[in-house]
Amino acid sequence: MNKQEIVARIARDCGISKSEANRVVDALIDHVTRALKKGEKVMLVGFGTFDTYRRRARPGVNPRTLSPMKIPGRRVPRFTAGKDLRKTVM
Known about the structure:
- This protein is α+β, with helices and mostly antiparallel strands and about 90 residues long.
- It has one domain (about 5-90): IHF-like DNA-binding proteins (HU Protein, Chain A), CATH 4.10.520.10.
- It is about 45% helix and about 30% strand.
- It contains three helices and five strands.
- Strand 1 and strand 2 (about 50-55) form a beta hairpin.
- Helix 1 (about 5-15) packs across helix 2 (about 20-40).
- The longest helix is centred in the first third of the chain and has 21 residues, at about 20-40.
- The two termini are about 20 Å apart.
- The model has no long low-confidence stretch (mean pLDDT about 95).
């Protein structure tokens, strides 16, 4: 399922236009992104939690030259499914 399919289903289920549903989905994505950028957690009870964690720097190998290199550490987003979502998917 892609974004447009989600927008169409939200519009149908809520009885709103697709453009309004699209604005809602865009706003949700924007606010989750902003919160993660600030280092905050976003918890949607029953659905799951979006957060970030720090990936450590580690050694690696350049595949083109086979020379050793250091891969820098960075923050990466993570999603953990909530209890209700896990039960539904099982």
